[in-house]
Design goal:
The complex is a heterodimer. Chain A contains nine helices and 16 strands. Chain A is of the alpha/beta class. The chains are: A alpha/beta, B alpha/beta.
Chain lengths: 285, 460
């Protein structure tokens, strides 16, 4: 059992949680994730380790309430427990001093890519961070990001904050301005990572993406998370989650992410149903 | 042994063989000739005193029989069910010269079930604490057996398990209808009552390394992490939606209980399912698929003939009775999908048997012009598994073979790294439950000697 020590609502549907997990906190490196199973009947879901403090023995996760399990986690309070947290899993990010690095984060991806950006910053890179969201209220971790980069660029789809448009347009402007870019890291929805990779490929700029395939055990024993990279099948959980963005079959990944759409919808409806019943009962009390 | 009707049992997840009544067990037990020089004992990888426990059953002392088995085998309810007895103890039973063998597996199962159903199982004597600490990595049959033996010797034993529940393949692999999960749970509980500690959610190689464990004060480590990495064929279309490894399919259904609507993990419920392979895992996956809602046809695609199938005869018969369609001498060449990336059919070729290969089995050779297409909406690959590299990769000084198995001294299970022992599928490659248990038992003896003397000379 893993105790929830803090919980914060970052936006309408994104939560930050600090969990007591000393062994994971001690070992984790940027780019790694944990598998969480909230309770006995729960499923196992992968969540990126957004931060960790080996001193206090805690890890931080950030998640968006999109389906049964994340919504269920959203209802848990400080002092309550998660049944299972296993990790740190996956390959850590390869960190070195590349020169100039652009980190592109979209939506929740900003929080998930944060530790990678931080590690690259600490390794002496000149870091340009582009953070993006649909509107100004959904911009995540602006202050945290500002403290781990040299240049911060913000963009929103509706122009309510910063540049109006997509982060790829900001990246394109950077390239057009003649800046020398040695590495691009993109974390966010698959279409964003695909678009960033498409953009950088003709320029030959090395691009790393952090993939989010469906996982079950995440120790390499099932292949649920398999992705095609450079024409070869790779297991995302042990060989990833980071891969060369120019080699990934995004179309296949998108299709495989839709594997359980009807089942997930059914579970989501079940959550809404049971949760509403619980709320009504609480009001009655 | 009495079995449930095939049509009825494919509608649920209950066990297929019903087990002996006391009368049936005693009637079977008296068939044993009580050989002075029993061949059956030599046929058992852990050397159970078979005539002695069978005699106790014949005399009506069922609990005594269970205790007798447990002197050498800590998981009799499991072994009685899943051991391939026809290749082990029962194969060499002297009665087979003229009649059928004594049903040793069924009797073992009966005694263990009887004892468990009596209520709380009495604990055997545990030696006084030695002060030595042993870490066991992985809680499958090898790890559970080693832990049970070591704790009885008085050592402090901690099992580290990567998943959220202990049991390894007994839990995630073998289905409920072949090995009920409450039996696995009660065998694990028995070990806990003996004093074994179990830490789940701990991925050795990630959460901690073997070197961390040695530094933390463990005097020895037993690595029993199995051979859990699934193989795929490498044919086109294998990453289409609807293609599973048997490991994933069985893990979703068995460990995550996806067949039970009260649990959250989903699994695809399809109409026409092809299972590729001919081993026990293929049978388990196919019979599981048959029981899922919406299943109409389940095919076994196997490239050799029935005689070469590695699955147990009993399991093949059970599958056949339940309606599995066997397409033998058939090999898939590609999987075809629709525009949304879902499986719609599988293209296969027919095979014929040629000369024997290195395994001694006749090599399947493709027949020219025999390609055909089978309409299916789900494909499960049960081609076997390879050793998990996580521990070898993160443990300096641990030598592995080119196949990825850990190199050990055959008798002592000692690896090339001081204080580290290994056994089960991580050493042999994918094998049987009982062989893993045998390795766990041998390793326990050697580990006991090692922690006491820092030397190993045990011969098993």
């Amino acid at each position: 059992m893993f105790k929830i020590l803090a919980k914060e609502k970052l936006t309408e549907n994104i939560y930050k949680m600090i969990i007591e997990a000393p062994k994971i906190a001690r070992k984790r490196k940027a780019g790694q994730f944990v598998m969480i199973r909230p309770d006995e009947r729960g499923e196992r879901i992968p969540l990126t380790i957004s931060d960790a403090d080996p001193e206090s023995g805690t890890i931080t996760i950030v998640f968006q309430t999109v389906g049964y399990t994340t919504k269920q986690m959203g209802t848990l309070d400080v002092g309550e427990y998660l049944q299972d947290v296993a990790g740190p899993l996956g390959h850590p990010t390869h960190i070195e001093n590349y020169g100039t690095v652009v980190s592109v984060g979209g939506g929740l991806g900003t929080a998930l890519g944060r530790p990678i950006t931080e590690a690259l910053y600490k390794a002496g890179n000149h870091v340009i961070a582009i953070i993006s969201a649909r509107n100004k209220d959904l911009i995540l971790m602006e202050d945290e990001m500002r403290s781990i980069c040299h240049e911060l660029k913000i963009c929103t789809d509706d122009g309510s904050r910063g540049f109006r448009g997509f982060p790829t347009q900001v990246l394109q402007e950077l390239i057009d301005s003649g800046r020398k870019i040695d590495l691009v890291v993109a974390v966010g929805p698959v279409p964003l990572m695909a678009a960033v990779s498409r953009l950088t490929k003709p320029y030959g700029i090395k691009t790393v993406v952090s993939l989010n395939p469906i996982m079950v055990d995440a120790t390499g024993m099932c292949g649920a998370c398999r992705v095609t990279v450079g024409g070869v099948t790779r297991f995302g959980c042990v060989e990833g989650p980071e891969f060369d963005g120019h080699q990934v079959d995004y179309d296949e990944l998108m299709k495989r992410l839709k594997l359980y759409v009807p089942e997930e919808r059914e579970m989501n409806e079940r959550f809404e149903r049971t949760h509403r019943v619980r709320e009504v009962q609480e009001v009655k009390k | 042994m009495p079995e449930r009707d095939a049509r009825q049992r494919r509608e649920d997840w209950g066990e297929v063989p019903l087990g002996y009544t006391s009368e049936l067990a005693q009637a079977e037990a008296v068939r044993c000739l009580q050989c002075k020089n029993p061949l059956c004992v030599a046929g058992c990888p852990v050397g159970i005193n078979i005539p002695a426990f069978i005699k106790l059953i014949a005399q009506g002392d069922f609990v005594g029989a269970a205790k007798k088995i447990k002197e050498t085998n800590s998981l009799p309810a499991v072994c009685g069910r899943v051991c391939p007895q026809e290749d082990q103890c029962e194969k060499v039973c002297i009665l087979t010269k003229k009649f059928t063998s004594v049903a040793i597996g069924n009797l073992e199962r009966f005694a263990a079930d009887y004892e468990r159903e009596q209520g709380e199982v009495e604990l055997p004597e545990v030696q006084p604490p030695t002060g030595y600490k042993v870490a066991v990595v992985g809680s499958g049959p090898a790890g559970l057996t080693a832990a049970g033996e070591l704790v009885k010797m008085g050592h402090e034993v901690v099992i580290f398990e990567a998943l959220h529940k202990p049991g390894g393949v007994l839990l995630y692999g073998i289905p409920e209808f072949r090995l009920p999960k409450d039996i696995v749970d009660s065998e694990v509980d028995y070990l806990k009552r003996l004093g074994v500690q179990i830490e789940v959610d701990t991925v050795i190689g990630k959460t901690e390394t073997i070197d961390d464990l040695l530094e933390e004060g463990f005097d020895a480590v037993f690595v029993s992490v199995g051979a859990g990495l699934p193989l795929f064929m490498g044919i086109p279309g294998e990453n289409l939606c609807g293609v599973y490894s048997a490991n994933e399919y069985l893990t979703r259904v068995n460990l995550m209980k996806a067949y039970n609507p009260d649990y959250i993990t989903p699994v695809l419920k399809k109409r026409r399912i092809a299972v590729v392979g001919g081993g026990n895992v293929a049978m388990d996956a196919a019979r599981t698929a048959l029981r899922m809602e919406g299943a109409e046809e389940v095919y076994i695609l196997y490239r050799r003939s029935r005689d070469e199938m590695p699955a147990r005869v009993e399991e093949i018969r059970h599958g056949e009775d339940e309606g599995l369609k066997f397409m033998l001498l058939t090999n898939p060449v590609r999987i075809l999908g629709d525009e949304n990336g879902w499986v719609k059919s599988i293209e296969c070729i027919k095979m014929e048997l040629g000369e024997p290969d290195a395994s001694g089995r006749r090599r399947p050779v493709p027949m020219k012009g025999s390609a055909f297409i089978l309409d299916v909406d789900c494909v499960i690959m049960a081609l076997g598994t390879t050793p998990n590299p996580l521990v070898p990769m993160t443990t300096p000084g641990l030598k592995v073979t080119p196949r990825g198995t850990i190199v050990v001294d055959e008798n002592t299970c000692q690896t090339t790294k001081e204080g580290v022992f290994a056994g089960g599928d991580i050493v042999t490659g994918a094998a049987t439950v009982i062989l893993a248990m045998g390795a766990g038992k041998n390793a326990a003896k050697a580990i006991d000697q090692y922690v006491r003397t820092k030397k190993v000379s045990v011969s098993a």
